Amino acid sequence: MNARGFTLLEILIAMAIFTMIGLAAYSVLTTTTDSDAISSQRVAKLEALQRAMLYLERDILQAVPRAVRINGDANGKVISGGQDQLQSEADGLALVRAGWQNPQLMLPRSTLQAVGYRLQEGTLQRLYSNHPDSVIGSEPKVKVLLQDIEDFRVQFLPNAGFERELKWQDDYVGAVLPRAIAIEFDSVDFGRIRREFLLASEGGDPNAVN
């Protein structure tokens, strides 16, 4: 029985087939790797969004009617929000929150915390300090909560007594807390997001309106 080898044409066809299989496998592997990377990035952004909303919810729902000193001077305002606040490129919000536990005052800080929110360079930032009345010349700490934010808006529902018609307003600076606060921002990744919060100090349970 004569042994028969492969012809050049058969070898070329086999090489072409294996090349196509290799390219297909590489394409599948690359697609899977890219999809995993995109999924991981998406999950990380979603987790950042959830953390940011938790910060907002905690700070707003625990707002207290406590005025702060600015450069050592009292101003009698317990909350301020809207345009031209905290050097924000859009709206800004500044208030004092409770719920910052300091058992037996063992930590070098107050049990109240002055916090603020602003938009700068496409990032939603939270400003905070260890004491409601900061030392003259000191700057608040800044924590970036979200990236790729295109706009940031704050609205307020003031106390209107027993009036039936309640309207949101864009600016609020006062010696008393409003009835509710709405936060809205435009995210490149998640679109427009809006949350409305009913302040606990105005009666009822401290639950978000929306």
From TrEMBL:
Q: List, alphabetically, the Gene3D superfamilies matched.
A: GSPII I/J protein-like, gspk-gspi-gspj complex like domains
The protein's UniProt keywords, in alphabetical order, are:
Cell inner membrane, Cell membrane, Membrane, Methylation, Transmembrane, Transmembrane helix
Transmembrane ranges, per UniProt, are 7-29
Pfam families associated with the record: N_methyl, T2SSJ
Q: How does it sit in the membrane?
A: Single-pass membrane protein
SUPFAM superfamilies membership: Pili subunits
InterPro entries assigned to the protein according to its UniProt record, in alphabetical order: N_methyl_site, Pilin-like, T2SS_protein-GspJ, T2SS_protein_J
Where does this polypeptide localize? Cell inner membrane
* Major location (coarse): membrane
Q: Origin, by domain of life?
A: Bacteria
State the PANTHER family in the record: TYPE II SECRETION SYSTEM PROTEIN J (PTHR39583:SF2), TYPE II SECRETION SYSTEM PROTEIN J-RELATED (PTHR39583)
Give the record's family classification.
Answer: Belongs to the GSP J family.
User: What's the protein called, per UniProt?
Assistant: Type II secretion system protein J
Q: What's the source species for this entry?
A: Bowmanella denitrificans
